[in-house]
Amino acid sequence: MGINFTFVESHHMNASDFNSFLYNRNLTITTAESITAGLLSSSIASISGASSVLKGGIVTYQEQLKIKLLGVNPETLKTYSPESAETTIEMVNGLANLGLNSDIYVAVTGVASASVNAYKVTKPVGQIYVAVLFENQLSTFETILKSDFEKDSRNEIREKAVEFIFDKVVEVVLKG
Q: Which of 54, 74, 75, 152 is the most buried (most CB within 10 A)?
């Protein structure tokens, strides 16, 4: 893992490059995932030596877990929806407040399909929200990820979300 890595903006980061980037900077990461349902942490953990960079992750797919584990305000969920920048910000702050002593905290929510439980989602499929907390600075990002297939694929959107998060975390760290 001791390779030198220079971030190139047009390059979509893979898990190996991401882990090397964190490892070379002696940084750790902890995640709170909704749309990715653990895929972010799993992608990081799939690379040998991941324990040097990954502290762990919490999957909070349903609202109840966002509230109970991360302290997301039920009113935020009701007012803005579980798939919103506001919810993601509360998720990342709740994660940081758990006292896990990580260098980087990341939370992600979004829409992977046209309907979620009893909700008729009004946001487009592929809409994701990411919050990154690094050196007490909060950065937020949102984008709409498109599937390469004719019909949107949940798993493809989740995989693209992980790549997007890798890119954004690197961007935040490089800005310092």
A: 54
Q: What is the pLDDT of residues 137-169, one digit of tens each?
A: 999 999 998 876 655 588 888 999 999 999 999
Contact 82, 76 (CB under 8 A): no
Q: Strand 104-110 and strand 127-134: pairing?
A: antiparallel
The first and second tokens of residue 17, run together, are 């490059």
Give the pLDDT mean for 9-28: 88
Residue ranges per structural domain of the chain: 15-175
Question: Kind of pairing, strands 29-33 and 54-59?
Answer: parallel
Token pair for 24: 């070379």
Is pTM beyond 0.85? Reply is yes
Per DSSP, 50 falls in state G
Q: What is the pLDDT of residues 51-70, one digit of tens each?
A: 999 999 999 999 999 999 99
Q: Is 161 helix (H, G, I), strand (E, B) or coil?
A: helix
Within the chain, what is the greatest distance between any pair of CA atoms?
48
The three-state secondary structure class of 39 is helix
Question: Of 3.90.950.20, 3.30.470.20, 1.10.940.10, 3.40.50.300, which CATH number belongs to 15-175?
Answer: 3.90.950.20
